[in-house]
Amino acid sequence: MFNVEMYKGTRDDQYELVKKQLKALIEDEPNRIANLSNASALLNQFLDRVNWVGFYLLEENELVLGPFQGLPACVRIPLGRGVCGTAASEKKTVLVEDVHAFPGHIACDAASRSEIVVPMIKDGQLIGVLDIDSPETNRFDEVDQKHLEEFTEILVNQL
Question: What predicted TM-score, i.e. pTM, was given to this entire model?
Answer without folding.
Answer: 0.93
